[in-house]
Design a protein that fits this description.
2 domains, 434 Repressor (Amino-terminal Domain), alpha/beta, 6-stranded mixed sheet, 49% helix, single chain, Endonuclease, Chain A
Length: 284
């Protein structure tokens, strides 16, 4: 059985929340709209998809009248198992990474904080190759090549007709390592950041090395947001061997607050651009 995607789990979790808010048990749903309780339970657990008509029946029962919210939930149901271009690379990317790419393709905005790496959506191919080779350790050259292709293809969300709105805070430490060993690589990467800053939907701030203690010391994270559905936003956390999605709305809200604190602690946009330019010019 295929592993549930984030979108399938989010749809199931939202349907469960709506049912419980109405004080309904699974047997009550069966009695009132005819859907078997076992089926509703599997949908809520993200183990089963749901047809459009059945979803409408549940949303009617739960009193969801907002058209935009219904559209989003229908999109979750329709696209939860949708195959995208990234499925071509299923042999080298994990299910969690495939989920991230799928969410990026559908999200309206993304807020990201990075401590030691330039965010993937802003990397050059050379930088991606160097970092992926180091992090993957045992990956073969063809596997690294494929991962670099995936990372470059992901960046199309920034230049599509309705581009993803991206706001990143990057710790200054991420802009300084490897300069002595790979000066041309890092100079090219910093130039790419300056170019991306010119895109209307991209905002880049730098958190300086001398910033006082801040909430970002707990580590990097990325938040993906969807239009008119803040309570369906998702946080992505990644480490060496696995990735985790934070989906509980109260926890997601805390990450949102953390990002606002980081934005306030970081240099303003224009000063961040100046610092990136200076760092680039310092590389000989």
């Amino acid at each position: 059985m295929p592993e549930p995607t984030v979108r399938t789990r989010r749809l199931g979790g939202e349907l469960r929340r709506l049912r419980e808010a109405k004080g309904l048990k699974l047997d009550d749903v069966t009695a009132r709209c005819g859907l078997p309780s076992s089926k509703v339970s599997r949908v809520e657990l993200g183990r089963l998809g749901i047809k459009s008509d059945d979803l409408d029946a549940l949303l009617d029962l739960y009193g969801v009248d907002d058209a935009e919210r219904r559209d989003v939930l229908h999109a979750f149901a329709r696209d939860g198992r949708k195959r995208g271009w990234w499925q071509t690379y299923k042999d080298v990317i994990s299910p969690a990474y495939a989920d991230l790419i799928s969410l990026e393709a559908e999200a309206a905005n993304m807020r990201s904080y990075e401590t030691l790496l330039v965010p993937g959506l802003l990397q050059t191919a050379a930088y991606a190759r160097a970092t992926l080779s180091a992090l993957s350790m045992t990956a073969t050259r063809p596997e690294v090549d494929a991962l670099v292709e995936v990372r470059m293809a992901r960046q199309s969300v920034l230049t599509r007709p309705d581009p993803l709105s991206l706001w990143v805070v990057i710790h200054e430490a991420a802009l300084r390592p490897r300069v002595k060993a790979h000066p041309a690589l890092m100079r090219e990467q910093l130039q790419r950041l300056r170019e991306r800053q010119e895109l209307p939907g991209v905002s880049i701030q730098v958190l300086p090395l001398d910033a006082p203690p801040h909430v970002g010391m707990s580590g990097a994270f990325a938040m993906l947001g969807f239009p008119e559905t803040a309570d369906l936003d998702v946080v992505y956390l990644e480490n060496l061997t696995s990735a985790l999605y934070v989906e509980d709305s109260s926890e997601v809200s805390r990450y949102g607050s953390a990002f606002e604190h980081l934005r306030a602690a970081a240099l303003p946009l224009d000063e961040s651009a100046d610092l990136i330019e200076r760092l680039k010019d310092e590389i000989k």
